[in-house]
Amino acid sequence: MNITEILFWFLTAIALLGALMVVFSRNPVHSVLWLILVFFAISGHYILMNAQFLAIVNLIVYAGAIMVLFLFVIMLMNMNADAEPQKNKWLKMAGTIAGGSLLLVFVAALKDSELQYRSLEGQEGNIGLIHHLGKVLFTDYVLPFEISSVLFLSAMVGAVVIGKKD
Amino acid sequence: MPINYYLFLSIALFSIGIVGVLTRRNAIIIFMCVELMLNAVNVLLIAFSKMHHLKALTANAATTVGTEAQLFVFFIMVVAAAEVTVGLAIIVMMYRNIHSVDINFLNRLKH
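YS: structure for the whole thing
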């Protein structure tokens, strides 16, 4: 068991534990903090797969910006832990069974796929570095990049229009 | 690491997100579970990018196969950020109107 496998299993355990705690913790603030832990673990996976730029962007955008936005909204609403009424236990059980069935179907469909001999070993290749990604982004993908700036502008205007007091 | 391990990690994260969306009633938690599902897809895209890149590297040492998947992940993050701003504005508006973020109060499309 080399260092890559140890890191993979460590990060996977952290990601799955954090994801489960996001769903099952009562306090929304704790859910946000567990989700930040999941994003850190996923960034570690990105680094293991040689996607260094996306690892940093994941940390900055998700763990840094989006999760802080969630935290601000939760603190603005002043929610306490048991604000959520515990209503229908059968509905909850049905949701869990449905999600578990989806997991089962995916695993059963993909466990014998012929991909399993492809390995992700090896650290060669530098397509994940910002030098290469930036060049491709500003030559081949410059139109989607500009359109996404329009998307951001419209999202900003939409958030202000929706959020303002009328 | 075989690609299957990343496949199963991604499936597990996605299913946990589905369970969260189906079981929780808090709108903010549901929103966070949607973010979790988006990240599961991102992990899978990066894993397949690495797989194709390694396969192409055996034929050509200077190949750039796999760049598109990383740019897709970049654009998914961009769209997710825009979505979060609008969605949280809607949740704040909803809290201001009905003083709760319980989605059970929102099943009538009117107030």
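YS: worth flagging: Residues 36 and 53 of chain B are 26 Å apart (CA to CA).
IM: good catch. Also Chain B touches chain A through 73 residues (CB under 8 Å).
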